[in-house]
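Why show two proteins at once? Because comparison is the fastest way to build intuition. When a single record is shown, students tend to memorize it. When two are placed side by side, the eye starts asking what differs. So, the first record is below.
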Amino acid sequence: MRIGFIAGEYPPRQGGVGAYTRILAGEIAKLGHEVHIVSREGTVSDDPALKLSPIIKRWDVSSLGAIRSWARGLDVINVQYQTAAFDMSPLIHFLPQIITPVVTTFHDLRHPYLFPKAGRLRDWIVMHLARTSAGAITTNHEDAARLAHLPHTMLIPIGSNILKPLGAEFDPSAWRKQAGAQPGDFLLAYFGLINRSKGLEPLLESVAALRADGIPARLIMIGNAGTSDPTNIAYMDEIDALISRLGIESYLYRLGYIEDDTIIGSYLSAADAVVLPFADGASYRRGSLMAALRYGCATVTTMPAVSIPTFRDGENLLLVPPNDAPALTAALRRLYESPPLRERLKVGAAALSHEFDWSQIAAQTVAFYGAVGGGASPSRTASR
């Protein structure tokens, strides 16, 4: 099969969707398929098996001719859709009427900005893309529920962008020392892009509260504001101000954006717990959560907004209400006082991580392409 990916984000631009596209395309190529990717000028590929065409100056009407020429002869085109990508251009929502067959992977179903007072048109344009696509892939239960009424949909989760296993030489004490932790310190880790949905305020408040209670908490922060959404830069300034107001600068180890998988995996694994208190609840859409599971970390996160049967409180995750600093503080205190609970969560996380194996994700995706392209009705929203 000749498969094309339309990627609004692709390396070297930071962003989870770009990394997802690179990894999934590579796994699909390993299955014997010919994979083409079109993206903006300046993007590069480190995988010779992928045929990258960095030919798009802007995702607008001027790019139509280039997209049509690139798509010629492809068996299926997979749009990797995210609201903040593609320069927020309305054009992307009409691609299924311009080239075909198009399968759209929805990394989120948030409303895009179109113009002031666009109102209901913002929801309509996203749903128009879903309705006119030959098939729609969702990556999480929330979006799967919204598209469940469409005939050709499937939930296929994302995997971790952080892939390298830790070697036998891994020494957690060395990484803890690098982060400023002393023996006996309660070392926490946060990983991911920094924006308003990540729940950093209650996490920082919890670190301050734990310190005030005499618990020697410290926090590793891995990640920055990213490049896909300019509003994240202003939010980062707010976080800096909160850190200063709480007086916890000396208890934080801030790494910013890290490309090296080994460094990220080592810090996550060296921490006593990874804390990801998403404001909108834990979800399959969160690559940072997948990374914590992949490394078998004791992980504290927030209760999902919808039922996710694979997330089991106290077994593979410790779940707290979103935007609730006292509840998060209590959960972290519980972990500090119970090493057996930390070990149970680690075992459960490692078992759960198999749900998000990239080879399995690639096989499910290719099967969906085949079902849509062959005219058969693929499974409706998967029962994950």
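Second record. Ask yourself what differs from the first in the token line.
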Amino acid sequence: MSAPDRFFVYPKDVDAFAFDWGRLALTCAPEVNRATQFSAGVVDLPPGQGHARHNHPGSEEIIFVISGTGEQMVEDDDGSPVTRQVGPGCTVFVPDSRFHSTLNTGAQPMQLFVVYSPAGPELALRDLPDFRLVKAGG
């Protein structure tokens, strides 16, 4: 990616991580555009799909709902699940190492913009058994 092009990135322009539950296209990451403080990307969840309870040790996460509706769980300070219905415009903050999950409960696809700080926890997704790499444009 040329220097000017790395400032403006669409999900279709980068390799995506595909799973049985959806896909993640990292549009901002050290390997995409040399970001140093965080990574970010677009998550697409088909109706009825979502990612299971997990955490990112050493990293905070922001989840912004672009479209669709779903159920978001974030564990509180005591480890108890706090679940809310979320929709377009909702920002979810996931503290460092906190367990969380997302489920698309709507009839339409759900699209999220996610940010990890510091960058790195998203790379562990490559180790999941249902991981598939989808080349840019595919």
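One difference worth noting in the second protein: The helical segments are 30-33.
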